[in-house]
Design goal:
344 residues, alpha/beta, Rossmann fold, N-(1-d-carboxylethyl)-l-norvaline Dehydrogenase, domain 2, six-stranded parallel β-sheet, three-stranded mixed β-sheet, 14 helices, globular
Amino acid sequence: MRARPSAATKIGFVGLGHMGGTMAARLLTAGYPTYGEERTRAHAQQLVHSGLRWRDTPREVAQAADVVFTSLPDDEVLEAVASGPDGILAGLSAGKIWVDVSTVSPRASRELALRVQELGAAMLDAPVSGSVPQVQSGTLTIMVGGDEQAYAQVEPILLELGTPTHIGENGLGLFLKLAINISLGVQMLAFAEGLLLAERAGIDRELAVGVMTRSAIGSPMLKARAALVLDLPEDSWFDVSLMQKTSCSPLTKHGSCSSPCHRRPQPTNCSPSHERWDMSIAIWPRCSRCSGSWQVAQRFRRRNALNARRERRSRRERGADRPRLSGAAASRGCCARASRPFLR
């Protein structure tokens, strides 16, 4: 049976964007006294009207709350919110728990967790799988890394948001979330490309989406996003840069990717006549001729051609491409092709 909220448990929330704001609203509805801070107060005004207790700095939120949540876009913002005289670390004290639901690099999260431990507090990485509708319905999948006792204390709060699972030590929740995001991005991109093919062949988009999501490829993720494909929202809940970040950071040593294959493709020499295909929820908005999948395919072709040239050059250097001599030609020590007429 789900534990009920305690009036003594005060929640703090730093980062009240699409996800963070919706989570804070759900915790307010569940009866938790909730304090919050956002870079621009106007963005949180509706929450304030609903009962959110506004604080001007992350430090003030950490001082007021027993459990502090953060929902932030990347490592740099997380560090900025944590550090300095007005940061969360300045407001934490022994016994408090910081739950970071952001998708950041495991390295950055682990380093920050060590700094939190020095204060006698605990930090959990608790990234979520799902978007705004799943927050609203309380059906997020939450992967938690960090101290097991701290997890047990915040589990009733996390149950208000979805289904939490303790994965292991700090950082492991993030690694599992990043593993999920890699699959999510690939599925959505492949679905968008397939739908584009069907539309260009003359098939109605709604008909194609319905058949595709009922077929073998119809995963729960694709079914959940089918409505978005048919009626694109005005605002992106999770934009291109965030998708690239969450798919890329586990692949690099330092948690930030500089490989060209993970940078957002930029169309070059794009003609206005080129047809645009921007589904907004695919990995890369792109000109169908200038970038995106076409650009990736071209890169593979160039690489394969280069490898083939290198292999031919290597074979020539080893003499592997010289014609084999046999019979009289071999006894004369000459190439049979040498006796052929020279054609201009």
